[in-house]
C-alpha cells in the first residue's frame, strides 16, 4: 500500500522538493544550459555519491532530466525540465525576497549578493570550494 505524503500548502511541497544542501544550487546551475556530471562535481566540489543522490531526487520530482549522449566517449548531461524552469523562476524571486529582507537584519550577511550583482547575475549564489575557503578566511580574520 502506497502512503500519501501530506502537505499543508503548495509552498511546503515545493520546499520539500528542494530540501537538501545542493538541490537549489543544482537547479540554478542547470538553468540556461545542460551540464555534464563531471562539470557539476567540479563546480560544486562535492562527491559523486552526494551529487548522484541529489540528481536522482530532482529527476524523480520531474525537475531535472538526464540525457545519455551516444558519442565515441559516452557521457551524460543533465538539464531542467519545463517544470524545473518554472521552479527556477520561483527560486529567483525567493532569492530576491531574501536579499531584500536580509538588508534590514544586522545579524544576517548574505555572502554572495555583492559578487552576483557585480557579475550581472540575478539568482542563487553558486557555492564553490573557492567561496568556502574565502568565507573561512573571513571568519578567521574576525576572531
TrEMBL record:
Keywords: DNA-binding, Transcription, Transcription regulation. The keyword Zinc does not apply. Coiled coil: none annotated. It comes from the Bacteria. Residues 9-106 form the HTH hxlR-type domain. CDD domains: HTH_ARSR. It holds the Pfam family HxlR. This is Helix-turn-helix transcriptional regulator.
Amino acid at each position: 500500500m502506497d502512503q500519501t505524503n501530506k502537505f499543508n500548502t503548495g509552498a511546503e511541497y515545493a520546499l520539500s522538493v528542494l530540501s537538501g544542501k545542493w538541490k537549489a544550487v543544482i537547479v540554478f546551475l542547470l538553468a540556461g544550459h545542460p551540464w555534464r556530471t563531471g562539470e557539476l562535481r567540479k563546480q560544486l566540489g562535492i562527491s559523486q555519491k552526494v551529487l548522484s543522490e541529489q540528481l536522482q531526487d530532482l529527476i524523480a520530482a520531474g525537475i531535472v532530466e538526464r540525457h545519455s549522449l551516444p558519442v565515441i566517449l559516452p557521457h551524460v548531461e543533465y538539464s531542467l525540465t519545463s517544470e524545473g524552469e518554472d521552479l527556477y523562476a520561483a527560486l529567483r524571486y525567493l532569492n530576491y525576497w531574501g536579499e531584500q529582507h536580509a538588508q534590514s537584519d544586522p545579524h544576517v550577511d548574505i555572502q554572495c549578493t555583492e559578487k552576483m550583482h557585480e557579475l550581472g547575475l540575478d539568482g542563487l549564489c553558486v557555492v564553490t570550494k573557492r567561496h568556502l575557503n574565502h568565507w573561512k578566511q573571513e571568519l578567521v580574520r574576525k576572531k
